Amino acid sequence: MMIKRVIALMVFCFFPVMANAQYKGETLQIPMVDEGMFWDSNITLEATLYKPEGDGPFPLVIFNHGSTGGGVIPEDMTINPWGFGSYLLKKDIALLIPMRRGRGASGGSYDESYTCNSKGISEGIEYALESLDATYSYLESQSWVNKEKIVLSGHSRGGMLSLVYASEHPKAAVGVLNFSGGWVSDSCQLNNESANLPMFKNAGRKMQVPSLFIYGHNDPFYADETIEEFAETFKASGGDLTFKFYQLGQQVSGHSVFESYWYLWNGEVDGFLLDRGMY
To answer: Over the stretch 68-96, which tens digit does the pLDDT of each residue have?
Structure first.
């Protein structure tokens, strides 16, 4: 039986040198119209904001969370990578972490699909993209945001979501930070290859801004060879890519590279943000 495992995101805090940081951001409510089969409803999405002091406008990083991992992470748990927020605030960059429908305290249903067939995968991504659409609509009215300096980022499913959104909305971001991105695990195969590869190919073909891929060896969701295929496929399709693949140590899950191994990649992210004019 094919195990339909999806990519889990588990981020509460990280960056050990920032362990004494206390600021955990402020909670926002993002309005959204939830389009149902028979009627639409007005809901709100919970989001956490880290904003530098002052009126701005400030460069902004949007962080997209991953899945519940088949229930490993409770749907009502708010993802708040406060270490990442502290890191960005020191550069006078804001961080916004929207919770998609049905996650954290956001309204609506968590319906991003746990399936390996191409139709179900496409429907799940489209469903997730609608929450990101609502986030961008909200930001249009926010004077503190520099709309010309937005970077999309995300971990696991959130990394893939960032790539797909930026490729379909050329003016939405000046760059993409993809941490361990993928929509489904290696157990999901289409035509004897990872079901993620068509998404990387399509994103690379359409993408008009640079991307930084950060992965760790020994990821439980995709083999090292698969991760290398992600990068090769994206780049061969036309994507402007910097790819970093870190060895975290024996018996260490490569999927934890975002929340636990900042000291390996923070220099790369520094350079990426600087090159994109974020600070």
So the answer is: 987 788 999 999 999 999 999 999 999 99
Burial 195-222 (b: 16+ CB within 10 A, else e): bbbbbbbbbbebbebebbbbbbbbbebb
Which domains occur in the chain, in start order? 47-275 (3.40.50.1820)
DSSP per position, 189-224: EETTEETTHHHHHHHHHH--S-EEEEEESS-SSS-H
CA distance 1 to 11: 30
* CA–CA distance, 137 with 141 (Å, rounded to integer): 8
Q: Is the pTM of this model over 0.85?
A: yes
pLDDT tens by residue, 231-254:
999 999 999 999 999 999 889 999
